[in-house]
Amino acid sequence: MNLRFYKYEGAGNDFIVLDNRKGEFNSSLNPEAIKKMCDRHFGIGADGLMALQLKDGYDFEMLYFNANGNEGTMCGNGGRCIVAFAEYLRLINGETNFLAVDGLHYAKISEKGGWVSLKMIDVTTVDIDNEAMVLNTGSPHYVLLTNDLQNKDVFKEGQGIRYSDRYVDAGINVNFVEDMGTHYFVRTYERGVENETYACGTGVTAVAMAMAKTKSQTGDIATSLRVLGGDLKVRFNYDGKSFTEVFLEGPATFVFEGAIKL
């Protein structure tokens, strides 16, 4: 069969997006097919695959699959990209409420175009693992402050943490962050992709929270972050205990569309 697809990227975090409003996706694809589609040598190439489908009470539902073919937890940049896709399909007009694996999400598209603000879940728990902070922003994240991040072997060090005894079973995304003064520079090793990605939305959200806690910042906080694929922003309110009104903001760009034979 020939499957129609769309390719989107958010700060270099790239995704295959499927229009599943007719419900054909579940019967036609399996984990191995998804893995092949995401393969950069034998398929389309992507960090993950998303399917947009209809859901009563919501504008749409987002299904997300990691590049290894397995269904994943929340993907922030993916969420922003699927919002842009829903606008392209004329399902929404500037604003939306949609369902993802971690619950309801609100999003708004800037009038300038190409900039999507996505509301993320509240976070109330931050754990400590030696020098790192561990928190769940829709996906689990390990945040470690470091120096000379540009030259760090993120694949080797990130893989070592992700497959350590503590995290090997459930897996964890590993974020290395360097304080650049005006912004934070972030590089991430992602579980499911099992490699470094150009950006991670739930990852930079976790980093912004961890750094606010580290610096004892409270109130309304807006954080600028640079990743390998560009710039992202995270804003939230922190009262010293809970992170609320959390928004991940950045570009969501259509790349191309096509068909693949499965």
Q: How do you describe this structure in short?
A:
This protein is α+β, with helices and mostly antiparallel strands and 262 residues long. It has 5 helices and 17 strands.
Describe the 3D structure.
This protein has five helices and 17 strands. The relative contact order is 0.18. The longest helix is centred in the C-terminal third of the chain and has 14 residues. A hairpin with a 4-residue loop joins strand 15 and strand 16. It is α+β, with helices and mostly antiparallel strands. The chain starts with a strand and ends with a strand. The strands form two sheets. Strands 5, 6, 7, 8, 9, 10, 11, 12, 13, 14, 15 and 16 form a twelve-stranded mixed β-sheet that branches. A five-stranded mixed β-sheet has the order 4-3-2-1-17. It is globular. The chain has two domains: 129 residues, Diaminopimelate Epimerase, Chain A, domain 1 (Roll), CATH 3.10.310; 122 residues, Diaminopimelate Epimerase, Chain A, domain 1 (Roll), CATH 3.10.310. Helix content is 18%, strand content 43%. The mean pLDDT is 96.
